[in-house]
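Exercise 7.
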Amino acid sequence: MQTRLTQAILLLYGVLTGLAIGLWPLLDPPGFYADFPGGPWHGWVAMDGPYNEHLIRDFAGLNLAVAALAIGSAVLGGTAHARLVGVALLLFGVPHTLYHWAYVGHFPPADRVPAVASAAVTVLVGALLLVLPGRAGVTGKGRTRL
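Solution. The predicted structure, written as tokens, is:
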């Protein structure tokens, strides 16, 4: 069984990251390309090359799939489910973060740290999901489950 902390991490990541960063490029690919992440930062996607609607929509689908996996894992409640989400986040997050780290030089100085840090959140959440302990319980067969 998952701890409440694990469930909260899964739900927060699934909703705030997966859904938010999945729906925006799906519903408005040109707007996502021009304006992501919004707020005080510049259009990070636009700084990285010409507009490619296919790539933007694939990125949207990836984030929606991760959202479904994370939210579904929180509902199912198994520690193995949460760890599977952790593996998926690391498989996406590590290469994504390394790319941003290597190619952040063309960003304005004020955007460099936030660009790398925001990508690294996925790595941090993935690692947390792998190492957070499960809640000990008893299975129907009298064995302790971790």
